[in-house]
């Protein structure tokens, strides 16, 4: 979409910077599927923001309805991901993961950034109990990432 718009503002520094940023993200995208998806989400969030700002009348960001629907579906899926609390067989780790999942779900149910920020702050430095299985650490990291996504969704939500 930005490339289609470039013809209108060939000397526009902000469009050049946006294109450069997206090209760097694309070029540096790792091979790992999850990491590539994170890069795609970064690009999608930026594009969503560009689509929501007031467009110049003489050269709007000409996103098709299909492109807008794809972007919305991708972001809804990205923000909606929830890692289930696994059962690892370690009672302390399983209890900690259930509590973390509850905090994550509470953060994702927040209606404003202050609420989500408070929960995210309470999780800074969080770790599963010492000696927990790697699966517990991995799930905890994913859940904490999901708290960040929920906070980001609120921060970048269109004004009401």
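Sequence proposed for the structure above (160 residues):
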């Amino acid at each position: 979409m930005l490339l289609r718009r470039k013809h209108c503002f060939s000397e526009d520094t902000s469009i050049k910077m946006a294109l450069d940023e997206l090209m760097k993200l694309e070029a540096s995208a790792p091979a790992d599927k999850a990491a590539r998806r994170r890069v795609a989400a970064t690009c999608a969030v930026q594009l969503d923001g560009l689509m929501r700002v007031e467009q110049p009348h003489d050269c709007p960001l000409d996103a098709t309805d299909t492109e807008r629907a794809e972007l919305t579906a991708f972001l809804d899926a990205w923000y909606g991901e929830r890692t289930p609390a696994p059962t690892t067989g370690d009672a302390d780790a399983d209890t900690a993961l259930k509590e973390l999942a509850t905090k994550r779900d509470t953060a994702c149910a927040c209606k404003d950034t202050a609420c989500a920020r408070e929960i995210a702050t309470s999780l800074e430095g969080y770790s599963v109990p010492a000696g927990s299985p790697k699966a517990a650490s991995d799930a905890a990291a994913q859940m904490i990432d999901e708290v960040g996504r929920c906070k980001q969704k609120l921060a970048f939500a269109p004004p009401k």
